[in-house]
Amino acid sequence: MTTTTPHANALKIMVIDDSSTIRRSAEIFLTQAGYQVVLAEDGFDALAKISDHHPALIFCDILMPRLDGYQTCALIKKSAKFHATPVLMLSSKDGLFDRARGAMVGSAAYLTKPFTKDSLLAAVREHTGGAGVSTQE
C-alpha cells in the first residue's frame, strides 16, 4: 500500500489513475507540499481504500479500465459517508462534453493532464479551503 505521511495532521488526498507516471507525479507534487497521499490504480482499488483512508479530496482519472472515472465518482457521491468529499476529474481531453458529464456525476472540478505542480496545488487549495498545510513552496 502506498501512503506517504509527511505530517500527521496533513490533509489526505487520494489520486486515482491507471497511469503510474501520473500517480507518481501527483504524489511527488502533493508530498512536497506537505499533504498525505493515497494512490489507487483504478476505481475498484480506490473504492477498496477510501473507507480506510477518508481522503479530504480525490483526484480521479476519467479513462480507466474496469471502472471509469465517471462511474467511480458517481459511486463515491452516492455514499452517505463520502458524498461531501470533493472529487476532481483528471483527463487528457479538455472537452465541454467531458466537463458536463463530470459535473453530472458530482465532480467538483476538472483538471486537464498533464497538470503542473501549480495547477494541482491550486486545485487542492480551492477545494479544501486552503486547509491542512502551509502553502510555502
From TrEMBL:
InterPro entries per the UniProt record, alphabetical: Bact_response_regulator, CheY-like_superfamily, Sig_transdc_resp-reg_receiver
UniProt entry tagged with the keyword Phosphoprotein: yes
GO biological process, one term: phosphorelay signal transduction system
Alphabetical list of SUPFAM superfamilies matching this protein: CheY-like (SSF52172)
Keyword vocabulary terms for this entry: Phosphoprotein, Two-component regulatory system
Stretch forming the signal peptide: none
Modified residues (4-aspartylphosphate): D61
Domain Response regulatory: from-to ranges: 12-128
Highest taxon of source: Bacteria
Protein name: Response regulator
Lineage: Bacteria, Pseudomonadati, Pseudomonadota, Betaproteobacteria, Burkholderiales
